[in-house]
Amino acid sequence: MNTLFEPYLVEGGHYTDERGVVRFVNDFDMLRVTRMYSIESNPDVIRAWQGHQFETKWFFVAKGIFLVKTIEIGTNIKKEFRLSSNASAVLCIPGGHFNGLVALEEHSVMMVFSDVDLSISKNDDLRQSVDLIPW
User: Fold this and answer.
1) Of 69, 58, 60, which is closest to residue 87 (Cα–Cα)?
2) Which fold has domain 8-127?
């Protein structure tokens, strides 16, 4: 798999002691990150399909569980990732893909990181209906 052009996971870990839990993804290189935001979505509400030709996004579950799906634009190659706050990992979705997500638990929170500012992202924004691309 060429991870420069296909979605991939950056695995992390956790450390637990009497003080609590520290979760980490030490191999997630944040040098390209320009902005971040969070999504707290109601369970079973599908947020799809948004995509970008050039923008790369990284997804990290801060709380709960999400199902994230990607589709390569123009080929309809689908991939599916189940992300949980119990398993530290960052999902990288490079440009050239639609993405969608659904929370699988109440109060789930997804952190999203982007490599471009909002004005560039808006000009690179592609959307497709779940009526045209079934979930």
Assistant:
1) 60
2) Jelly Rolls (2.60.120)
